[in-house]
Automatic annotation (TrEMBL):
GO cellular component, one term: periplasmic space
Entries under Gene3D superfamilies matching the protein: 2.30.42.10, 2.40.10.120
Listed EC numbers: 3.4.21.107
Keywords from the named record: Hydrolase, Periplasm, Protease, Repeat, Serine protease, Signal, Stress response
Binding site for substrate: 117, 147, 220-222
Record organism: Magnetospirillum gryphiswaldense (strain DSM 6361 / JCM 21280 / NBRC 15271 / MSR-1)
SMART domains, A to Z: PDZ
Family affiliation: Belongs to the peptidase S1C family.
The keyword Repeat is assigned to this record: yes
Name used for this protein in its record: Probable periplasmic serine endoprotease DegP-like
């Protein structure tokens, strides 16, 4: 018997609806549901979170602070004068300042993690456990670049509760997180929220990769843990964004994958041992990428190479663009320092670079990042300004001159500096790229320039080949960098 077409159609519709319902139910079953309560998790984790207080001795100022202005003859004038003189007396007793923060136990032997800024410059560090017992803490090690510190207390016969680290790379935007800490000195306070964003750069340091959360974080939460729903530490609460100083739902935590290797080094060596490549890098903008023949502005552009460093030994050169390091894509410049820092010292890592219009792979033996020498602030005396001298490079807004003793003195340039010095920048392509008088153009189009004719020739050659940008290598006291100089009448490709 031939089935009724209408009956078949209705059956197919029912089957489709049933399949859709089953699929929706399965999807709902696999989705993470909001917990009915965090009480069990909080009860388990609270004993591992500690309050940290520090004291610091502040010496009296050597000069009398400026006194408020009062009308002549005011009775307050003598009162404030006497008060401020007493405060500035050399024999007056030093003052002691206190600050509060948070931390958490990572080892039952008494190791505690917190932020470096919580204990910076402290004379004494006190750790208060969840049961209100206090212990004097010893600083084991600190790292200002990641804002982490490891402390040690002697728990005696007390059994400490320690918490494990989780894998922050597995945390997804929208996952539930729990923050526990000591906001405003109130002690064990629990707040909940979600992961709001990943890989935030807030210009706090060279390895910024913060987790952003809307869990309430306030002053005093610094150094406290950010837990996932399994009770693992996925972040260390470090900073907030707040115009008012209070929580507005934008907090930042150091991810555990960045923190754990640093903490392990601090425990073992008392300092951080980081991988080192020995290059100064800059980001690629679309103009720089195009001038180098790249279709995407991804990677880290090598601006200079440290003599005798790992990169120099592997024959990396200024102008190379690092696309991959040890098999990991460098999608943006700021990722490279962190990836190198996490690489084992001594490891031979393959580095994929873009050089002369093609991909090249070199092997680099990763070195150890040397301790940075203490910076000595030196201010050069102001040089008298003279009228611009040199040759105008048409279409660029630049006036340049070959280096001579007078120009070296005027701009504070070293004797071994070689290139063309910029003496004036007018409105135009160079000004738009941030070039200034005193900049030294070392190369143009990957060729050395030593006099204005060299630069003019490079500009004309670039225009003749229909290039829209001329690649310049520029040096000043602050940095060595590449600049893609727009050519105003360059022909479109």
């Amino acid at each position: 018997m031939v089935p009724n077409p209408m009956t078949v159609s209705r059956r197919l519709m029912v089957c489709a609806v049933t399949a859709a319902a089953i699929f929706a139910q399965a999807a709902a079953a696999t989705a993470r549901e909001a917990p009915g309560s965090f009480a069990d998790l909080a009860e388990k984790l609270l004993p591992a979170v500690v309050n940290i207080s520090t004291t610091q001795t502040i010496k009296n100022p050597e000069r009398i602070p400026e006194m408020p202005q009062f009308p002549p003859g005011s009775p307050f004038e003598d009162f404030f004068k006497e008060f401020m003189e007493r405060q500035a007396r050399p024999d007056a007793a030093p003052k002691r300042a206190t600050s509060l923060g948070s931390g958490f136990v990572i080892d039952a032997a008494g190791y505690v993690v917190t932020n470096n800024h919580v204990i910076a410059d402290a004379d004494e560090i006190t750790v208060t456990l969840h049961d209100d017992t206090t212990h004097k803490a010893t600083l084991i090690g600190r790292d200002s670049k990641t804002d982490l510190a490891v402390l040690k207390i002697d728990p005696g016969k007390k059994t400490l509760t320690a918490v494990p680290f989780g894998n922050s790379d597995q945390s997804r935007i929208g996952d539930w997180v729990l923050a526990i800490g000591n906001p405003f000195g109130l002690g064990g306070t629990v707040t909940a929220g979600i992961v709001s964003a990943r890989a935030r750069d807030i210009n706090a340091g060279p390895y910024d990769d913060f987790i952003q959360t809307d869990a309430s974080i306030n002053r005093g939460n610094s150094g406290g843990p950010l837990f996932n729903s399994a009770g693992e530490v996925v972040g260390i609460n470090t900073a907030i964004f707040s115009p008012s100083g209070g929580s507005i739902g934008i907090g930042f935590a150091i991810p555990s994958t960045l923190a754990k290797p640093v903490i392990d080094d601090l425990k073992q060596f008392g300092r951080t041992r980081r991988g080192w490549l020995g290059v100064r890098i800059q980001s690629l903008d679309p103009e720089l990428a195009e001038s180098m023949g790249l279709t995407e502005s991804k990677g880290a552009l090598v601006a200079s190479v440290n003599a005798g460093g790992p990169a120099a030994k592997a024959n990396l050169k200024p102008g190379d663009v690092i696309l991959k390091f040890d098999g990991r894509d460098i999608t943006e410049m700021r990722k490279l320092p962190r990836i190198v820092a996490e690489t084992a010292i001594g490891k031979k890592a393959p580095v994929e670079i873009w050089r002369d219009g093609k991909r090249v792979i070199v092997d680099v033996a990763v070195g150890e990042l040397p301790e940075e020498p203490e910076e000595v602030a030196s201010k050069s005396p102001e040089k008298p300004q003279t009228q611009a001298q040199g040759q105008v490079i048409a279409g660029t807004g630049l006036t340049v001159s070959a280096l001579n003793p007078a120009l070296r003195e005027r701009f504070g340039l070293e004797e071994d500096t070689a290139g063309l010095v910029v003496t004036e920048v007018k409105d135009g392509p160079a000004a738009e790229k941030g070039m200034k008088p005193g900049d030294v153009i070392i190369e143009a189009g990957n060729k050395p320039v030593r006099n204005p004719a060299d630069l003019t020739k490079a500009v004309e050659a670039a225009k003749a080949s229909s290039q829209k940008f001329l690649l310049l290598r520029v040096e000043n006291p602050q940095a060595l960098r590449y600049v893609a100089l727009p050519l105003s009448d360059g022909k479109k490709k």
